[in-house]
Amino acid sequence: MAMAQLDFTAPCSISKLWELFDKPGKIDWQSEVFHVDVLGEGHFIEHRPDGYMRFELTHRDFYEKLEFDVETDTERGRRIILFMEEGNGARIALMDDFKSKKLIGNPMLGSLMNKRLKTMEKDLKKYFR
User: Which CATH homologous superfamily contains domain 2-127?
Assistant: First the structure.
């Protein structure tokens, strides 16, 4: 098991930040996602240079929380995103908890997850500039 976290505050309303994560077709802010297949409500696949990430929405509290089961060709796990109003903006706390599909596991999984979230943070900063 590996865990990674991202804490980000944006100078916008909570609804605008929510829309980035609740509308899978909105990918213009993500540098590592070049295509999304929307398979149904809350079920989509992001295509990235390193492969795919399949998301299935498991819980939604509007403007408060999103939970997804996530799977790639080498790992599976859960993504939880908490949304909070903060000052004149909105904040997310995003947590990934993944494990390798292989018996031996991937010793680099934690590094890979942290890299993904660092890229997401950089993309969010650029988007809200």
Answer: START domain (3.30.530.20)
